[in-house]
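Table 4 source record.
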Amino acid sequence: MSETTRRQFLEVAGTAAAATFLLPAARAAGQVAPVPAPPALPVASPLPVGPGAPYSSYQSEIYVAGMGADVKPIFTTNLSDLEAAAAKVLSEPARRHLLEWAGGPGAVRANARKLASWRIVPRMLIDRAERDLSATVLGVTMPAPIILGPIGSQVLAHPDAEGATAQAAAAVGLTYVHAAQASTPVEGVAAAAPTGSRWFGLDWPKGSGPDTALLTRARLAGCTHLVLSHPRPGKGWEALGAIRGAWDGPIVLSGVQTVRDARTAVRLGFEGLVVSNERGRRGSTAAGTIDVLPRVVDAVGGQIAVLFGSGVRTGTDVYRALALGAQAVLIGRPYVHGLALGGEPGVRHMLRTLLAELDITLAIAGVASYRELRPSALVRA
């Protein structure tokens, strides 16, 4: 949680704490006239998420639970600190696979540096008491434009693996993308989170065609969209026809970093694309991808959906990507950090913290809906 967000949280939480702890004593002493009691704020179970309460209420829930019942959050709400915390509980093979091999440190630093260089320009003197984060992305209704991107071998982070991640995503209503290289079969994830929204993430086939049996299993397990990695250098688009023949839902191309590739995606009939450097797998010298996003959005011209998926760690990062034209944002490392630190409750805590921070960022910036955001909401430092 940033310092600005923390101050905003303390203002809201302080008011809740005063109402919860100070007013009853004052009324008992006859200092305050009796008034109808507000609805009780539960401390042992989470407040409703989405339409039932603002996402920002999670901050007050944490504060009041700590004050009233000495219940502390499962781990920090400073999402920027999660990777360091997760590294302490992961085995060395897990750290290498999830935190290092999943993307070169150079690409990670470039993404973080470029994201931080975009600063928020707040609007003033407008009503922002209620914020609307709901979204419809490629026909899927979501409570917020955030998607859990595909990450394989999650058992390295926690024994409950992808099933725990899918359960946490379903608990807050977010879409989960199941990786073909997952440690849990797609049928296992469907059983763990039967009501959750699921997509399927597939690496570009090494041969001439995809594993059609695997794609059939994914469709039968309730995966509605396919997130397809960009072909590797030296590979062409020959496999695309076979992929389309084996998948009858929308297909999203990931790993797009240039205007030329974005226009190719439009020409080949993809329903969407993800602006990303694929976790740095293309090399440690990959550019910070957020700078590419506005150019891709302009090149596509609204013909297909443009998502963003590189380096997002905080709600402020989500805000930046949405302002620069992304229709939704894919997150990866942060939820794996939450999984390593606390299993399904850890992923859920991380997601609720991210949603709360995005909600609070909108409030501080004076924005009632993320759909109002334009590049003018940011300035380059």
